[in-house]
User: Fold these one by one.
Assistant:
Number 1:
Amino acid sequence: MDSQPKPQILLTRQEIEATVSRLATEITGEYHDKHPLLIGVLKGSFMFMADLIRLLDFPLEVEFIGVSSYGKGSQTSGKVKVVQGLRSPIKGGNILVIEDIVDTGLTTAFLLDYLRKKKPASLKLCVLTDKPSRRQIPVTIDYLGFTVPDKFLVGYGLDLDEKFRNLPDICFLEGEN
Ligand code: PRP
């Protein structure tokens, strides 16, 4: 058995629930009559997306895109690529991108640029956790859950080498960066 660092809780499931609820209220205010397409960025956003959309009581559609910049380990490779494409049309749609975390900003900046080229009517970004201290490229976040410190986060969809996504709290791992 490989030894794993013990995750320490940074944001409890109750804090996450309250914040997702606040974001749902904000998003409802803007999108209740706009029939948006929410695009979750795989894999990390799946849990956030699932909790968020259950609180959105208006017509919407859900899509996922796979974008990858991290290989094994906790350092970004700096090279972003689409590893699973979209099946829904983007042109003319009101697109809301759902991200679990913005760190260097490379993934999100690439993705927003990729989507913008498909000519949506509107394009906005909802992010659960933002780590601005690590930013390499500016990213405008329209709906933000938490600003987090420069620690390696896991849980609530976030992973280290595909592990820990199932933790219900957002945790940090000592010794990783
Ligand atoms: C994570 C996260 C973001 C990205 C943020 O994805 O979900 O998409 O990294 O990092 P950045 O701001 O430095 O680009 P990851 O590539 O780890 O894939 P995953 O969601 O499948 O875990």
Number 2:
Amino acid sequence: MTEHQFLPKTSYTFLESGSVAAQSPSNIALVKYWGKYGEQLPKNASVSFTLSQCRTETTLSFERKQSEGFEFEVYLEGKKEDAFKPKIQKFFERIERYVPFLTAYSFTIETKNTFPHSSGIASSASGMSALALCLVAIEQLLSSEEMTTQHGTEKASFLARLGSGSASRSLQGPLVVWGKHSRIEGSSDLVGTPYPYAVHSNFQSYHDTILLVDTGEKQVSSTVGHNLMHEHPFATLRFAQANEHLEQLITVFETGDRAQFITIVEGEALSLHAMMMTSNPYFVLMKPNTLEIINRIWKFRKETGSSVCFTLDAGANVHVLYPSEEKEGVSKFIRKELAPFCKDGAFIDDTVGTGASLL
Ligand code: PMV
């Protein structure tokens, strides 16, 4: 696979105006992407569960214009959001080669999240992938040549990646790999691809309850975090570890070994945070309540033999992962023992899902 595949193949027949809409979910990485090179390419391969409830819905309207450059307005839940514009401007600059109709239209981006905007949950994965899918839909309206569904999905993932790396993993589900890995056929640095091998029934209906420990602004943006890996003393080992973890997960997925799954997934979360604690400058992204929650999960697992485990993104919130047959017991445990450590007791119940779609 090369970038060239994603350049438009035919010239466009321009419509005067129109509108498309798409929804796309967030995803939670089991093996983390943290460190990039070139144009949003990952230093190691990652794999994630696609979520289903935490989603962005975006309507993209377009109207023909004659002026040069990009022209767009962004609305979040009906309210004009100029704060989003610089990120989208940069996204448009990066993807213009691949969707050159961008400068031919004035766009209105109307977007809403199914999760609270202030929840501290990354909306960039769902937001960028929903917008990318809308752009591919417009390209299909303007092109005379049929685009296969697979190419359309790959192109949306390719574009989404240029907006936010992890967004490349939100187009499909339930398990998506992003980043070239020698043991995973079809894997690519350019796009997210569905995990291609056997997945034991033990891993086929997972829940992710997201505990909202800290709902403020991210302490460290992912751009800053990824950049800190450039000069990081442990970077090379970290990238090798992630690729090794992904290789181990191939066997875990096949055999259904939940104990080993827990070891890898929790180890990944802690490695990501260890990278931030040992960078220059250094950051502690956990809060005291994050640690309380982790300790309680460990205690609960020890006492009950449950397969519940945790993972973290680059922040203080905790993703609690567990198989659906444990839902009743784990839900009770979360409400009683973990929710008190969340901001205003808030958490979001999510399950593994299948990815983005047009609306
Ligand atoms: O997609 P970005 O650039 O916001 O990076 C996100 C990276 C993590 O969420 C911390 C890990 C991952 O693989 O999703």
Number 3:
Amino acid sequence: MADLDAVVIGAGFAGIYAVHALRSSGLRVRAFEAGGGIGGTWFWNRYPGARCDVESKDYSFSFSPELEQEWSWSERYPAQPEILRYLGHVADRFGLWPDIQLNTRVTRAAWREDAAEWAVTTDDGAVVSARFLISAVGCLSAYQVPSLPGLDQFAGPWYHTARWPAEGVDFTAKRVGLIGTGSTGIQIAPEIAAVAEQLTVFQRTPNFAVPNRNRPWEPEDERAFKSRYRQYRKEARESFLGVPITGTGRPVLDEPPEEVQRTFAERWRAGGGMPFLGAYTDLLTDQAANDVIAEFMRDRIKEIVHDPATAELLCPRTFPVGSKRLCQSDDYYAMYNRPNVRLVDLRSTPLHSVSAGGLSTATAFYELDALVFATGFDAISGALAQIDVRGASGVALAGRWAAGPRAYLGLATPGFPNMFIVTGPGSPSVLSNMALSIEQHVEWIAGCIGYLDAHGYATAEATAAAEDAWMAHVTEVAYSTLFPKADSWYIGANIPGKPRVFTTYVGGVGPYGEKCDQVAAAGYEGFALDGPLAAK
Ligand code: NA7
């Protein structure tokens, strides 16, 4: 008999809930977590300004009505420390700690055909066996530092935002260089600018950012909201993004221009990316429609940033709004009005090298005391690819995914029996409310395991035909939108050599959930189920 029923890799939102849900089904579970604490991406990304871009009332577990009533979020958008406190509370409240092993990295997982179980090796040399392997490694875990010649010569400290020192960093009186202007760079830049002697932002591509309008969650608002939390959660599960958004329901191109300006201005004032992009039905499918919202945003940038040359450099013009993650910040653009902040355009003068005293571009040298990389992640597949996962006949997952990651419903892939991926490639994952998508996946996986046990099956394995059909659908839906037009991490464009494949399902959280339910109701259609009773 295997040591465990299930090994869970990772203890972020996904791993924490997997431990709870599988244990509640009576399974023997252990989660291995490389970090010294739970939280996954929220454990590692402890840089100043780190904040979720989904509202706290949405970015939280819904599985326990008691939990959602008793926990109070202090702000509209949760900051990283508060998310960690929340997850700690969840682990305490549901007694999850005994089944989570911290400071332990899974290095290898191999399917043993004869025993129909996984052998999971950790970096302390231990090997445990389990019937099921659940990947909860997260979509944004494998961080990347660009290979910059001379970085090892730099005299000052350098940091990647995804490995920020727990004790913090004091930039007082320092000349700091920041590389990267995605969601992370945009969050950390104003925090550095507020304390540093000088901040130099090295920008390769400008990004669109909408205001957060972050604010405390007032007790009366909280009480009123919580009185209908159950109904709200139901609406969220049926919604497109995993967050109920009220749009106009009309295409922007059919709307009188003054009405369009009024609608966007209203949503700009209210803050938040999802309501902004969800204002009209055609913004993410029609380039001409997207041009309207892009122009509105560029006008706001030019309004906020005083220096016209800097404002122009900050105006994105090379990709549709929303096809890269729409950033959110209340003070990023205004930060450029500070005298201690300057912007360097890497398009006209690319990065060249680092030396002891600073950073050189093709045309200039910038003296720096510290360097910060906010240069992103090998997203969606990167963290799993770092583990030596071997399926039937010793086939490597990394090899199977060489042409791009793929999975049936984003959950399972042929050749890897009894392995499930939480928010894997082919699921709505990063283009949805992750907390909700994680719960939906974990519940589906727990249901599938329960079905196998109840019907005497030992294994479930996605069929190649089901995976092919699903990924063809994922691709078809993606290419009916503007998403593939951007060189984004959604499509792997940020990682040199990574195949350009769009692997996130943009057909909507609600329809996706229905499809998963149908598959389950049909006896796990698209999976080959096998085992002792099945053989009879
Ligand atoms: P992103 O969104 O991938 O942003 C990374 C940024 O770093 C982006 O501006 C990149 O420019 C820049 N970058 C990356 N490599 C280089 C090199 N070699 N030289 C110069 N600039 C570079 O990562 P984030 O951490 O900001 O956000 C990831 C997600 O986390 C986010 O979308 C949210 O969902 C949460 P580029 O645009 O590629 O020209």
